[in-house]
Amino acid sequence: MVKRVSLGAVECPVARALDVIGDWWSLLIIRDAFDGISRFSRFQKNLGIAKGMLTARLQELVRRGVLEVRPASDGSAYQEYALTPKGRDLFKVLVALRQWGEDHLYAPGEPHSTLVETTTGEPVSRLELRSRNGVDLAWSETAVRKHHGSNAGRGGSTGKRHNDTRSP
User: Fold this and answer.
1) For the residues 76-92, what does the mean pLDDT come to?
2) Is 18 within 8 Å of 12 (Cβ atoms)?
3) How is residue 145 annotated by DSSP?
């Protein structure tokens, strides 16, 4: 079996995030936690994941501060998993994945679940990327600015266009 390489120390924030939540089981566990699932048995049943794999993923998400373990809310001897503030900050990431999936992975008219507002039952709006002035931005209107050492945040950086084909 190939040993997984950690991306936790690389410069790229996307790579570091993927080091924590980058496998599909972790993202599906987080999705289910947002849907109110909190017990091991319910995660296992809903996902159809092997118990050993689920145990490893839950332990890693707890270790990384995405989930926390707490006593069962019903007072039983069981424990529950709950999203931490760090875990709840992943909500927009899951919404973005959901919207991408809706746009690209379903045939026209093919049924799928819809994310709705709880108070109105209406579908939520599309996620948008906006400038500080409120203007919609396309990917081609953004660039990654790398900050190096003590010049970070003071113009001592290099910008890279997203359509630049050179390697990072």
Assistant:
1) 96
2) no
3) E
